Automatic annotation (TrEMBL):
<keyword id="KW-0813">Transport</keyword>
<keyword id="KW-0472">Membrane</keyword>
<dbReference type="InterPro" id="IPR010917">
    <property type="entry name" value="TonB_rcpt_CS"/>
</dbReference>
<dbReference type="InterPro" id="IPR036942">
    <property type="entry name" value="Beta-barrel_TonB_sf"/>
</dbReference>
<keyword id="KW-1134">Transmembrane beta strand</keyword>
<keyword id="KW-0798">TonB box</keyword>
<dbReference type="GO" id="GO:0009279">
    <property type="term" value="C:cell outer membrane"/>
</dbReference>
<keyword id="KW-0998">Cell outer membrane</keyword>
<protein>
    <submittedName>
        <fullName>TonB-dependent siderophore receptor</fullName>
    </submittedName>
</protein>
<feature type="short sequence motif" description="TonB C-terminal box">
    <location>
        <begin position="569"/>
        <end position="586"/>
    </location>
</feature>
<dbReference type="GO" id="GO:0015891">
    <property type="term" value="P:siderophore transport"/>
</dbReference>
<keyword id="KW-0812">Transmembrane</keyword>
<keyword id="KW-0406">Ion transport</keyword>
<dbReference type="InterPro" id="IPR010105">
    <property type="entry name" value="TonB_sidphr_rcpt"/>
</dbReference>
<comment type="similarity">
    <text>Belongs to the TonB-dependent receptor family.</text>
</comment>
<feature type="domain" description="TonB-dependent receptor-like beta-barrel">
    <location>
        <begin position="142"/>
        <end position="554"/>
    </location>
</feature>
<dbReference type="GO" id="GO:0015344">
    <property type="term" value="F:siderophore uptake transmembrane transporter activity"/>
</dbReference>
Amino acid sequence: MVCRGNTWLLQTILKGAGTASGAVNFVRKRPQAKPTTSLSLSAGTWDDYRAEVDTTGPLNDSGTVRGRAAISQRDRGSYMDISKRQDQAFYGALDIDLSPVTTLGVGASYEEVDATPCWGGLPRYADGKSANLSRSTCLGQSWNDWQSRRSTFFADLSHQFNDDWKLKISAVHSRNLQDTKYAASEGTIAYDNPAPTANSYAALMDYDHKDFGLDAYVDGKFQAFGLEHELILGANGSRGTQDDVYAIQNLPSRQSIYQPDHHFPEPANSTFWPNMYRGGTVKETAIQYGTYATLRLRLTEPLMLILGSRVSWYENRRQSNNLAWGEWAVQDARTQENGEVTPFAALIYDLNEHLSVYASYADVFQPQSSYATADGAALKPKIGENYELGIKGEWFDGRLNSSLALFRAIEKNGAQTDYLSFCATSSDGYCYTDAGKVRAQGVEAEISGEVLDRLQVFGGYTYTQTKSLNDIDTAKEGGASNTYVPRHMLRLWGDYALDGALSKWSMGAGVNAQSSNYRVQTIKLEQAGYATWNARVAYRVDDTWTVALNGNNLFDKTYYNTVGTASWGNFYGEPRNFTVSLKGNF
């Protein structure tokens, strides 16, 4: 058995540094040689309706041209007042065999969102305690509007030189346009004071983000010293741009936290720019390219050494003209990193046909050019190391898998807020430093697959301990560096297929649990540990159709899914909800 290592190995090879607009994803749904159509319909709590069809198969008699098309539509309300959303997605792809060893793939997708969002979250009491507001509470307005449109075009070419070596070239281009107009309210709550006290504001945003990525690699096997080895050699690059305009203005009305008014007068778009207290324009371009290599050396039959590295070049230019807190500020910052080397290595030993142990190491490199110091300079890139030691198991021809890992990550030059400074170009008005040095370590265990006949399980447990090794506030050194990460997280799920006369039925149940987490500003805001239970019952009508009922948060646990500040940003997790679905495969 060969352990394939962890996700970070692939990310280190392909992604390199982060871009201004996000990572480029080269993984797509491929057309299949066998004609197949799947249909899914569902209806759930809060008027949640979804339909999806996905069809694929050959388009000519020889099967050298294959196609795939998918369309989905979802309309849903929310447990929060006024909030609703409509999603549409379209996908189409072709695979064309230019020869028996060469295949060209092309395709496109389009996603559209039309929503009335409830953004901003909820406040707490001034001392940080929860006000125990109704989970349906929304401090937004009925005219809130979010329009998002993302179009993506992609192509790839793969060529099989022989049984051992292949070449693949992939390209993808995407554009995301977002137009948003919304209102929200914030301000701490006074005990026993139902009067409208929360400040209200409205925001108008126009975002245009574009990404282009190109990746090419050769992947193959070779023989040396009587053993088989593997080699990957590749290069990739990406260019991300954003062209954003935004404006935020105060609204004259104050909001009642306990009895929100969702019908404040809607300000005209033309009023935002002359009346804004914060806003402006941001143009940013991030270009990165690099080369990478991975060598899998079979030192002996049970022992494999994986060595690899990426060499990255990164350039970012950010131009902004912002008004914040009564002051206009112009920024034209350029950041460049040349020949940054991020190596990684792993050693894997097969104890027997079921168990393997491994140890791994990887470097961290992440530019932080969107943050500026008090003198206007961009922060140094975040650097660091990841270490992992673990054991993985595989039984019953891969039907049951397990893993246990110890991990440690150390990051240096982390961005930290300098609360004693003022930077008008910053979104929060503060400057930043790269003084942060943190450590995260812990253990992760996971099991998945068929543990008994007809019983499928998934179980995962993660223990994470974080520590601040260096901080702009020296009083925090030695304490937890990220208190928002729960110390303990547990995920369990089991699904059992009945036998005999009830063989068409299956039942599943599971729990997601975590220990407490909190944020510390001038006060401590805490979410106590909690657990949510979920279940599923399914009936297989025939070989084509299956109907199922899913229930989430069955005991209707009230908890904060996101811990914000005392004034805003606290979001409840979803109350108890149910979904019935019908799925068919033809």
